[in-house]
Amino acid sequence: MQIHDTPALKAEARNLNFYYGEAQALKNINMPIYDKKVTALIGPSGCGKSTYLRSFNRMHDLYPGNRYEGEIRFFPDNTNLLAADVDPIEVRMRIGMVFQKPNPFPKSIFENVAYGLRVRGENNKRVLDDKVEHALKGAAIWEEVKDRLPEQAPNLSGGQQQRLCIARALATDPELLLFDEPTSALDPIATGAIEELIHELKKRVTILIVTHNMQQAARVSDYTAYMYLGEMLEFGKTDEIFIKPQDKRTEDYITGRMG
Amino acid sequence: MKPLTNEQIRAVIAKGKFRDNVFKATGIFCLALALLVIVALIADMVIKGADRFTIDFFMNFASRRAKDAGILSAWVGSLLVMLVTALAAVPLGVAAGLYLEEYAKRNWITNVIEINITNLAAVPSIVYGLLALGIFVYQFGLGQSILSAGLTLALLILPIIIVSTREAIRAIPAMIREGSMAVGATRWQTCRYHIVPYAMPGILTGVIIGLARAIGETAPIITIGALTFIAFLPPAPFMGEPAAGLFDWVMAPFTVMPIQIFNWTSRPDPAFEVNAAAAGFVLMAMVLSMNAVAIYLRYKMRKKIKW
Amino acid sequence: MSANNNSDLHQVSNRLAYNAMRNWKERLIEAVLLAAAAVSVLTTLGIVYVLVSESVSFFASVSIVDFLTDTQWTPLFDDAHFGIMVLISGTLVSSGIALLVAIPMGTIIAIYLSEFADSRVREAAKPILELLGGIPTIVFGYFALLVVTPILQVILPGLPGFSLLSAGLVMGIMIVPYVASLSEDAMRAVPMSMREGAYAMGSTKLYTAVHVVVPAAISGLAASYILGISRAVGETMILAVAAGMQPNLTWNPMEPAATITSFIVQVALGDLPHGSIGYQTIFAAGLTLLLITLVFNILGQWLRAKYREVY
Question: What is the pLDDT of residue C93?
């Protein structure tokens, strides 16, 4: 056991339960999210991995009838993200999200990236220009769009749209970035570009990613959690989970005996 | 540039939420204003017209003396015009809707018909009046009759009935059609025994909404030259001397509720305001109860049908 | 064997005959249904025919230049003038007032119902709007003349008994439900994923509505405004009752004035002989009205094509 190998905590789920009305979707989840690492959530469809991911930025608060129990602690300030007195908007300002299907706003490329800054009340043109360029570079799309910033974002290709959405999330310097199956709507080349990007991004930001693709999890993540029927069955370093899973069900899933 | 501190973020959020609340209040205010107009309208007519809610008011003809004037010829006229309108518009509208949903091939004829129906819905109602004046009244020689008025309003509400028929048919899943065709039914048999009956509640809703619109229409009927002062009823079938024919009434001159209200409203003598208020309330009651039935039907339909 | 074969053949030919009859009947029914659908096209052709043919006779005795530039409208006087601008000004002023009420109010209600209200409020509000939209315009005319005008006269002492202002305001209220319900439909059609994207960035509800949902639904909103404009321009009874019917070339909403529609009503109320110039005038006015609504509709189609939603 080498103590210095364990990185700092960025967030931690503690006894997390989640209900869609009466139906329990997450069962007693305990799991650490390490700072500046990529953590992948894998598991068969309907296992609750997206539900879990969306708890971090309180997306479930947008719909009536949803209920959380337990805590998600967020560090360094040790806030419980799910506490009733914590404003979901504040949580979302600190945590960025990239969705399954690219969802650029019906605005120009520039305004898409500037959106989060404007939400925060930033309207200084110089600051916006600067930050938008920085974010687009961070999302590895600057070279492709730098001459067409006033164009409508929905005109971009699917892969470009998704990188634009990443730039949009990056522009506000989130502390944690959530990815909900970010490549499931993309072709293999665009997927490769996003995976490379994730690899770059973890130098700056902690990443939690849901994926249905085993190879992707193995390629991009440092840690992996296997979820099944709303429970987290196994969590560990990605190498270890993929080489010698402890749980039989994890092994079945990883080796393709269950999908 | 440093990221915002948590305090700064909270200040931004507080400002945003304040704006949210201001907007929410504005939205509720606008809705309340809409409701207020309905309430004020009804209250005003009930209070002003209270004196006239008597049997006599419904059973008397129009008169030069406000107190003796009633709405007999107006409400009878409205009912008869609606009868003609419904008899013309319902079969035509349902047939057209059925054709467009179940029969029409994707070709230019269908396109023309569809674009046409959309555009007709935006044509001002008074233009229908001009159409009827030129075609029904003079070209066809139908005169300023119940038939002319009924047909005019039928054309006016045709798009409403067609659109609601199509929507009702579209809500029927393909498996019903396939199931019927699979046992050898022809297209028409499928329509007649399956599509039309299942779409009936939706069609009915459209018909009621269309008729509610028609019964309140004034402009096209004034345009064809309906009279504003009528002190007799259309001839009832087989009555009178010599005995009237079964359909003589369709060619009779007439007046309708909205025209009666218009007539009373535009008189300078305030005594007629009372009549206008009472008649307005009667018309509102007719229209609103028809709309209420339609809304209720739609609500029930949504609850009941689960394919 | 052969006898058997024969009767089989007989049966088959019977069935074919039956099928042929069935086919024939099907064709006939299809033709009847098509004829019903074609009635709408005939209606349009009828409208165009009537308006154009009567207008042609009209313009045989009145020059188009006079029609468009004369500043007087006195078609029934001995000294007849046919300046349509007189009527158009009344139509535009009253429609303008109506839209100043209907577009903001309708849009605010739509945004509120689609983005803020919970389902209970929405379920209660929709029938209210439908009822408002179902009130006959003659009743609104009564309301404008006998309720709203007296109230306005308290606020604006100089206001005459008939005015474009009063009629326009009530017309605006009448149009609110159309704008609100079409706009709301357009906004509800914006996919939830778009809103989630905005909320995930930390937007508040209003910010999401104004900066994401409204731009995404803009073509639907434009369509609802265009419909509102068509309604306003074509509205008749409120103006005939509450705006007075005297021709008056004015841009001042505090004055009474005739509109294209109320002029047609005024003429129809009288007893003009078929074929006289006065009779033809209302068709020329009707054609003008139709062209104005047509222009707005084409504009609407164009806007819709230009800003077609790409989700």
Answer: 96
The residues pairing with B154 across neighbouring beta strands, listed in sequence order, are: none
Distance CA A227, CA B148 (A): 73
Q: Could you say which DSSP state residue B246 is in?
A: T
Asked if the C-beta of B91 comes within 8 angstroms of chain C's C-beta atoms, the answer is: yes
| Secondary structure (3-state) at B231 | coil
> Are B16 and A130 within 8 A, CB to CB?
no
Q: Write down the residue that tokens 């165009």 correspond to.
A: C48
Assigned token pair, C103? 């577009």
Asked if residue A255 lies in contact with residue A40, where contact means CB atoms within 8 angstroms, the answer is: no
A-B contacts at Cβ under 8 angstroms: 27
Closest residue in C to B111 (Cα–Cα): C41
Q: Please give the Cα distance from B178 to B173 (Å, whole number).
A: 9
DSSP SS3 for C297: helix
Cβ neighbours, 10 Å, residue A86: 14
Sequential DSSP letters for B91-102: HHHHHHHHIIII
**Cβ within 8 Å of A, B 1-40:** 1, 3-4, 6, 9-10, 12-13, 15-17
The Cα C105–Cα C172 span in angstroms is 9
* pLDDT digits 0-9 by tens, B173-221: 888 888 888 888 888 888 888 888 888 888 998 999 999 999 999 999 9
Write the ipTM. Answer: 0.91
Q: pLDDT band for position B306 (50/70/90)?
A: low
| B16-65 confidence digits (pLDDT tens) | 999 999 999 999 999 999 999 999 999 999 999 888 888 888 888 877 78
DSSP assignment letter at B4: P
Range A59-71 average pLDDT: 93
Using alpha carbons, list the distances in angstroms from residue B164 to B204, C11, C249: 9, 44, 42
Residue B205 and residue B297 in contact, taking contact as beta carbons nearer than 8 Å: yes
Higher pLDDT, B4 or B260: B260
Question: How high is the pLDDT of residue C308?
Answer: 60
Instruction: Check CB contact under 8 Å for B16 and A89.
Output: yes
At residue B151's C-alpha, the angle toward residues B146 and B156, to 5°, is 125
Which residue carries 């079969």 as its tokens?
A: B91
Distances (CA, A) of A82 to A9, B163, C155, C204, C214: 17, 48, 53, 18, 30
Q: For position C109, what pLDDT does the model report?
A: 97
Q: Which of B267-281, B290-304, C46-60, C111-125 is least confident?
A: B290-304
pTM for the model: 0.89
At how many degrees (to 10) do helices B6-49 and B271-304 cross? 130
Tokens 């947008």 appear where?
Answer: A62
| Dist. CA B97–CA B193, nearest whole Å | 16
What whole-number distance in Å separates Cα of residue C212 and Cα of residue A145? 21
Tokens of C210: 């104004």
CA dihedral of A57, A59, A61, A65, whole degrees rounded to 10: -130
CA angle B117, C173, C222 (to 5 degrees): 50
For the stretch C132-145, pLDDT in tens is: 988 999 999 999 99
Q: Which of C240, C237, C256 is nearest to C248 (CA)?
A: C256
CB atoms within 10 A of CB B21: 14
Of C118, C199, C215, the CB nearest to A107: C215
Q: What is the DSSP string of chain A?
A: --GGGSPPEEEEEEEEEEEETTEEEEEEEEEEEETT-EEEEE-STTSSHHHHHHHHTTGGGGSTTEEEEEEEEETTTTEETT-TTS-HHHHHHHEEEE-SS----SSBHHHHHHHHHHHTT---HHHHHHHHHHHHHHTT-HHHHTT-TTSBGGGS-HHHHHHHHHHHHHTT--SEEEEESTTTTS-HHHHHHHHHHHHHHTTTSEEEEE-S-HHHHHHH-SEEEEEETTEEEEEEEHHHHHHS-SSHHHHHHHTTS--
As a whole number, mean pLDDT of residues C48-68 equals: 92
